[in-house]
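Archive entry. Fields below.
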Amino acid sequence: MSRLDPFTVELMSHRLSAITDEMSLRVVRTAMSVGIKSLMDFSTAICNRSGQVIVQGLNLPLHLGAVPDAMEAFLREFGDSIQPDDVYLLNDPYSGGMHLPDIFVARPLFYRNAHAGFAVVVAHHTDVGGRVPGSSAADSSEIYAEGLRLPPLRLDNGGVRNDTLEKIIRANVRLPQILFADLQAQVTACRIAEERYRDFCAEFGAKGVERATAEIIDNAETRTRAAIAALPDGVYTAEDFVDDAGIGRNPVRLRVSITIDGDKILASFDGTDRQVDGAINATLSFTKSATYLAIKSITPPDIPCNQGFMDAISVTAPPGTVVNLVPPAACAARGVTGYRTADVVFRALAKVVPERVPAAGEGGNSGIRLAGYTSKGDPFFLMDAVVGSWGGRPGKDGVEGIAPLAINIANTPVEVLEAEHPMRVEAYGFVPDSGGAGEYRGGLALKRDIKLLEESATLSIRSDRRRFRPYGLSGGQEGSPSWNILNPTADGGEIIPTKYTGNMKKGDVIRHITAGGGGWGDPLRRDPDRVLENVLDEKLTATYVRKEYGVIIDSAKKTVDVEATKILRETLKYERSAASTDRGEDHGSWEE
Amino acid sequence: MQKHLVGVDVGGTFTDVVCTTPNGIRVLKVPSTPPDFHVGVVDGIERIVAGMNGSVTDIDEVVHASTAATNAILERQGATTILVTTRGFRDVLEIGRLRVPVLYDPMWDKPAPLVPRRHRLEVDERIDSSGVVIRPLVDDEIDSLVERLRKLPVEAIAICLINSYVNPDHERVLADRLARDFPEAYISASESVLPSIKEFERTSTTVVNAYVAPIMDSYLKSLQTSLVGAGCNGSLFVMQSNGGMLPVGEVIKSPVFSIGSGPAAGVIAALSLATQLGIKDAITFDMGGTTAKASLIEDGQISRSSECEVGGSVSIYSRLIKGSGYLIGVPAIDLAEVGTGGGGVISVDEQGGPHVGPQSAGAIPGPACYGNGGAEPTITDANLHLGYLGTALAGGSLQLDKSLADKCLLERVATRLGDTVTHAAYGAHQLANAGMMRAAMAVSVERGRDSRKCTLIAFGGSGPVHAAGLAQQLGIKRIVIPDHPGVFSALGLLSADLEFHGLRSIVRRSDDLEWSEVDASFADIEAALRSSATARHDSGLSLERFADLRYVGQSSSLTVPVTMDLSDLGSLATKFGRAHEKEYGYRLANDVEVESLRVIARVPRETLQAVRMPQSVPADGPRSRKVYFGSTFEWLDTPVIQRAQSPTSCEQGPAVVEDYDATTLVPPSWSYFRDEYGNLHLRFRPG
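PREDICTED_STRUCTURE:
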């Protein structure tokens, strides 16, 4: 078959993107929960008849590889009985899902009575039942505790709502009104997609659409493979750790070997720890998503994230590991594992293309929850996500005051938090000297202090990166560790664990400090004038830069003492090279 | 009697001037004169008035829009600004809302804050969320702040304290004291710029305000002085991004409201035209050299957004996720922007995939066919090759070199694709339309409108040549191309009402609030607006009340008009429920919270008399050229006519209608006619 005119293919690709744009905008407009509406924790896609992703819309980075597994599950279940006006859904991580709050909705697209493709929307729902409100507890040890499991099911059968299913769902979730509003937003987006897809087929012809979509997928694969072929062949291995799984204190090891062989890339997670009792176990689809995210970040940005891109990348992990769970592992809080998976893949890729890979950021968001009852008996609940720094980058400092690449999350405005909760934010800002030192330094950590104004509250925290800090690259230092401190004072306070559940009483202050980003490159090579700028901005202190950067600042004159700096840097260079031969190269690994 | 009105829209390259007198309307494009833009403005005004046999002394009003403030931000040329904040919150401005407007780009850079950390000073004070002072602001603390400020270069001071939206006392005390101690500095307190909840949005807006104020002040003063020097004693008004205008003396209190006023004027002009033509729903499409902008007119009303960004990137994603520019929480006309203008570069990727933009050849060197050394083929080059544009633009003052366009298209695109120049140029033209289609669709879909039921109102230098192709991709069947499309935005300056906006933050549950309190707050805002407005404009002042409401627990609010028949909070809540259902498709049983109250005081503008176009008089003989319309029609001999010669009853395309400042393309599947006011109407009517 002759190739289509490339302009027509590109034009059609724009038109398909317009359909997923419209799906995304519809979801944002009609969904009810904050998670979908404001945090945009959802993704949209159009697939061909065999379930291959042709185009993805605005999406959550960690949903990148989610759709193929879900489509496979839908096709396995309904492949022989697809009819117009069907709507399918699932959320079961053991049959195509990722974790229970993420519900996938798919609708077959029909043009002139022939099945032509699928529209898919996956969205994170506020609550899908289970033992804890929000269905996201980190300390469940079995999937059965986490909420309602939905294997691939028909929500609508040829346009007729499956009442039995709807009743079961309503009876099992805490906020059925919100869940069904959000679900309806997904269903509506898929219905709009079918209308638009029909127009699209009418304009270009069913055959034309089929050829073009095949080419759109092929082109992405060809371009991805060309990008991989440009990378040096070899096997590149890296390790990173989650501090602990929430139950027990053992660290969890993630290990990846990236093999680049011509135009093929394989990420193998052999050597990663077994799945754990806590709820941080991930599905292979989630592990793939995190891997795609890292590879996507180092390949040409305009390659579309469709099936072709994904097909060019193989990801394997032994079943029963924390990155490829088997029943009955719990997985609601697998976010931290996804962040660390992306971190470890980036770390391996840094050995392939050091000039394109940043040092580790803060390691994903920390979750601070405060819940209780006011003196009037009204419940209050705060879920605060604290996050904020990228690692140093080749040629650039790490950004500070920013969401991680893996989850594009916003902070809660201090004034909104105070207006809606019996709490006061005492401070929210950067922590000086916290980013990993480097020629390009890591972003500073963020500090957030919250004071309780009611009699008592339950405090629960999910954080990480205290024991295993964000790594530096190319000679850059690790970022500073994360901390949780109850009632901080000038010289201390009560340090509490990374994953914690306890109580707070009136007047107590909980301080969370995120980890700082890792540094990139030898700190002794950092331009002294840039160090001076940081000191003048009070992001780094004069004492610290003397020790870490070997830069001596004349504080009165606000200048660098050039001569003294030169001498100090020579001395430090000698001392550090002597020390590093003792220390061994991989300071990120952990031994019992 | 119709007044003598002048509208001036100052861009980086050109200054557009439009003048109406009892004798008619006239437009003029003159080069801008950076850095002293006022020189070009006065020159343009003198020339246009002279061309109408009038005198500068006859001018009653000058309405002005400029990019001065935007440029000050983009070029980081604003005032050295100090930010004063509550202790513990020094970094609010720099942290922002964290989110990244582009995905998968680890090399993305966040815009550096307009005030670096060393210039952000904390004071020890605290007010809680209900307005109670937790830590008083004591004199010693203010003295120490003044001491610290004395060591810094202070041109402007922004003050934004936590929870000042409920209790502005500390900000006012600080502002008074700093005004006394630093009489040369421009001082801006958040409670007077944007008294609404969310500390980052309020801080950012106040900082932008302080940062641009000194520049705007000196620019507007120079302009006023030169106008007076030239003999013009008319009143000077400045367009605001919300679509209204303000007397120059008011502007300087909050210059942040005039940022982005040029594009807003285009939408106002389109609204005025739509009203005149009885069009209720329209998508406005303004395409210039570097960007294209779309906006929605819905049921005869412009769409507004509650915040926008200066210097933000242009993509669909950044409409949903801010963070690429400097946020200003100012209610403005809602515009979606894509980075495809006439200068959009056509390229081919490593695997032979063609793309248009996002790079632009800009004004310099511009498209290859301008002959200024542009080496990259652009959309304008493709349009020239296809016969959509003639080789002489702007009445012959700009000559295009077709051979340069063809050469560049051949080498950079066609050869690499193994394709003909014509086919490549046509493909690129359509790709440009596809990119703009996504922006235009976004503004309608976001509000639940079906773009296919809208009329496309197309203007800007490149809008009319792309209108039909864009409409076809959007499924739109009706297009209006106004007369003077290239300076249409400047025309909007003459349609804007005088508008004073007032805002007060409340943040109270409706069941915890008395209507009398609401009424009293409205009356306070109105009294303040009256005192601003009545200095010279006491006649015909109308007041409109609005409330920003939300369900308890929601993070964003909806603005609902508070009509005079409303006199209780229950009905207001019901009205909000209806608005919520229309906007989002559902309503809730939750309690309703009043976030803030707004009042717009408006002195309506006299409606501009639409000017009838003289009956067509063919000035010269019939002209035609070969124009390419895709593989179905290929090259067709196409009549090329002046707007004044275009038919007054519907005729089938193809045709090319040339104006002084733009060219309208009528493909074979479209018909067209000119109405008595000179507007071109296109209708989709395939063969």
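CURATOR_NOTE: The CA atoms of residues 26 and 189 of chain A lie 6 Å apart.
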